[in-house]
Amino acid sequence: xxxxxxxxxxxxxxxxxxxxxxxxxxxxxxxxxxxxxxxxxxxxxxxxxxxxxxxxxxxxxxxxxxxxxxxxxxxxxxxxxxxxxxxxxxxxxxxxxxxxxxxxxxxxxxxxxxxxxxxxxxxxxxxxxxxxxxxxxxxxxxxxxxxxxxxxxxxxxxxxxxxxxxxxxxxxxxxxxxxxxxxxxxxxxxxxxxxxxxxxxxxxxxxxxxxxxxxxxxxxxxxxxxxxxxxxxxxxxxxxxxxxxxxxxxxxxxxxxxxxxxxxxxxxxxxxxxxxxxxxxxxxxxxxxxxxxxxxxxxxxxxx
Amino acid sequence: xxxxxxxxxxxxxxxxxxxxxxxxxxxxxxxxxxxxxxxxxxxxxxxxxxxxxxxxxxxxxxxxxxxxxxxxxxxxxxxxxxx
Lengths: 304, 83
Prior knowledge:
The structure holds 2 protein chains of 2 kinds. Chain A contains 5 helices and 6 strands. Chain A is an alpha/beta fold. Chain A has a single domain (26-257), classed as 3-Layer(aba) Sandwich (Pyruvate Kinase, Chain: A, domain 1). In chain A, strands 3-2-1-4-5 form a 5-stranded mixed beta sheet, with helices on both faces. In chain A, α2 links the parallel β1 (76-82) and β2. In chain A, α1 (3-60) runs antiparallel to α5 and α4 packs across α5 (221-303). The longest helix of chain A has 83 residues, at 221-303. Chain B is an all-beta fold. Chain B has a single domain (3-78), classed as ATP Synthase, domain 1 (Sandwich). In chain B, strands 1, 2, 3, 4, 5, 6, 7 and 8 form an 8-stranded mixed beta sheet that branches. In chain B, β2 (13-26) and β3 (29-33) form a beta hairpin. Chain A binds chain B through residues 39, 42-43, 45-47, 49-50, 52-53, 56-57, 146-147, 150, 213-219, 223-224, 227-228, 231, 234-235, 238, and chain B through 6, 8-13, 26-28, 31, 38-43, 65, 67, 69, 71-72, 76, 78, 80.
């Protein structure tokens, strides 16, 4: 076998092995999207009820709660970025990180410092590589976030929010979240939203609340709000994490699908070239044999 | 007249159905809800929520904190964990 042919065959084998891996990852992601979507759907009733309750309390009570009042001169803002733990998901993590950069620039133009809270190894590595300060980071659960994970993140953010930002580098006056909204299997979009101070009813799909009833509050509106708002923030972070997880799987599936397609194409063109090389080899051998036979025949003819 | 009840946790809908009476413990004390109750929003403490289902059986849930909201004979019990 000629050297050229051997090289082509070796490359084909390696591309085929890669294709098997990407194909497997594509199938795994495809099955996980469905599960992730179901988890988003399962968390919706709770989130909707909470949103409804928060709107009701905010509408019918004039209580001033630290979580709903805007700071008069905000100095620091927290930005929570939700990214992936693993790569192989196309531009998924990059989009979220980029959105974060844009938001940071916007905040800077308003004269705010940013404190970065990061979820997912990709964002953490990005910030660490650039030697940026990280206020808090969590990783290891971007595939299947649990409510406990969301709670942990929410706790850290709320503690920072409730601390006074004028007294040092711990407090923040605003909290923004960047996550990837799962619109459909083909569309996912990185989004930046302000979480605190609260803008009640900011979800893109309005919760069908109907006419809000005049609630009686037990024990009273202020206490209810105290208990309700942290849960609301937790639920929103949890929802953002679940949506991001679904988006991550969708992005990975798409990336792996195009990788598999590319491998297919590569194998096709390599097969063509290998065939041509083999044919060239055969043609050369035949012409060598014919040439050799000719030479022999003419040599023996000359000797007679 | 029955109450439409839903017990929901962040990860799933734990239970839903029709009930005739609900008893739960809020920060102010025990509270019972019958059909026709005025709109109410209460903060629950750790403890049991018992639901008298329309068919006569009783459902008990141990809630770990949470909220109870009543409006137009629709009751939602929001809790972080129910068992």
